[in-house]
Amino acid sequence: MADYHRVHPVIAGSPLPAPEQAKDKLKPSAAHDEQVLPITAPPPYAPAPMRAPRRKRHSRCYRCVCWTLVVAIVLVVALGATAGILYAVFRPKIPTFNVDRLTVTRFDVNTTTAVVTDAFEVQVTANNPNRRIGVYYDGGEVTASFNGTELCSGAFPALYQGHRTTVRPLITLQGQTSLDSAVAAQLAQQQQAGFIPLTVNARVPIRIKFGVIKLWKMTGKARCNLVVDRLQAETRLRIRSNSCSFKLKI
Question: What is the dihedral of CA 203, 204, 208, 209, to 10 degrees?
């Protein structure tokens, strides 16, 4: 087949293009074809930080608080119901205390130093009026004082008191006390008048026994306000007045 050549119009007076230049214009630039774009590596993979499930955590805390309150309420109700049943069945009554006898075995007063050295024997009567309740006395302390100044002290014996029984422990008190001038003057004045106020305090740990059930340890506090006629060695004092009270601290 015969080759057909396209005929380009040429404006009169313009120079004819050279064959090589015309070919170059038709070909694309080699530099443009060979231009290579830079290849960048993808950034390293970094996992997104995990967020704590706040709602779940809050719901767990709320459940723990709710269960704690429920358990506490159940325990309180159970203890209250148990105490009510025990009270209804046993009808507990507080034991009574009284000082029956007070003997001075030693009473020396140093007028120069105002030091009192004394020893008492106190017989206490404890009565348990309960029909089905026993009382354990786990030791304790007994003191005797004059106008707020302690003169002597001793130990309450450890013993068990059955239901509807009376015990009479004999307690020995000993002490040495330095009196100030005001207390020494008051004691001398009361000795001459024959009316000496004395206070006997007892603080005793107690456990109550309901049938076969032994409760926790509580504190019994007894206080007896006495008025005696005199303080003289080897003398059984005459108790002019005697007022005792007993409280049980749970």
Answer: -160
Q: pLDDT tens, 17-33?
A: 555 554 555 455 544 44
Instruction: Give the number of C-alpha atoms closer than 13 A to the C-alpha of residue 205, restricted to the C-beta side.
Output: 8
pLDDT, tens only, 148-205: 999 999 999 999 999 899 999 999 999 999 999 899 999 999 999 999 999 999 999 9
Instruction: Identify which of 117, 138, 136 has the alpha carbon closest to the alpha carbon of residue 128.
Output: 136
- Give the 3-state DSSP-derived string for 150-191, with helices as H, strands as E and coil as C: EEEEEECCCEEECCCEEECCEEEEEEEEECCHHHHHHHHHHH
pTM, two decimals, is 0.66
